[in-house]
Amino acid sequence: MDTWYIGLFLIVGLVLVKPTLRKLSHGRLIRQLAMEGVEVAPRWVRFDGLRVKGASWTAEVDFKPSFEKGGHTHFKADLGRKTPDVVFPATAGGAAAFAASGDEAFAQKLLTEELRKRLLRLGALGGRLWYVRGGKMEIVGPLPGNPDELRAFLALAREVTDLAAEALST
After folding, report:
1. What is the per-residue DSSP string for the chain?
2. Cα–Cα distance, 56 to 135 (Å, whole number)
3. Are 139 and 75 spatial neighbours (Cβ–Cβ below 8 Å)?
4. Distance CA 42, CA 136 (A)
5. Which end of the chain is less packed: N or C, by CB atoms within 10 Å?
6. What pLDDT score was predicted for residue 94?
7. How many domains does one find in the chain?
């Protein structure tokens, strides 16, 4: 039987076409996002990213697809100054998310009451503050399915970063 090429075309279709369509769909999603201070950062192979500018910080947003859980959004902010290292637990949610390992005094200075409220709201969206290390801060969340989900995540991530930068300046 000379039908082996049908199987080959199906494999090529799954390996090449599906990721390409997913990348194009994601590109359309982030181009629909209309937020001040946010611009698209095109990538050739990976999902397109975003560049976000705050008053005293800048951030890169990376989108990483995952076949098991749908993927993750990584908001990586450069706070513009060196900081001690604080890591927040990966699985903790709610009030347990405020238990940090690393420099305890710095963690207490960083986690103001307003920042804690924003982190709880971020947790309700499926996001969390991952770490603050060497002047960098990373917030992770789920891969958004529509522009409104992305807009809500970015708005909270920007608020968290603004509050963290403010706490560092005092």
Report:
1. ---HHHHHHHHHIIIIIHHHHHHHHHHHHHHS---TTEEEE--SSS--EEEEE-SS-EEEEEEE--TTT--EEEEEEE-SS----EE--SS--GGGGG--EE-HHHHHHH--HHHHHHHHHHHHTT-EEEEEETTEEEEEEEPPSSHHHHHHHHHHHHHHHHHHHHHHH-
2. 12
3. yes
4. 22
5. N
6. 55
7. 1
Residue 106's alpha-carbon distances to 16, 76, 85, 87, 95, in angstroms, are 47, 19, 8, 11, 18
Q: Strand order in 128-133's β-sheet?
A: 38-41, 49-53, 58-64, 72-78, 136-142, 128-133, 86-87, 101-102
Q: What is the dihedral of CA 61, 122, 170, 82, to 10 degrees?
A: -40
User: Domain of 130: which CATH number?
Assistant: 3.30.1460
Instruction: Name the residue range of residue 82's domain.
Output: 4-169
- Model confidence over 47-99: pLDDT tens digits? 777 888 888 899 998 888 765 455 688 899 999 888 888 888 766 555 556 77
Question: What residue type is assigned to position 128 of the chain?
Answer: R
Q: Are strands 86-87 and 72-78 parallel, antiparallel or unpaired?
A: unpaired
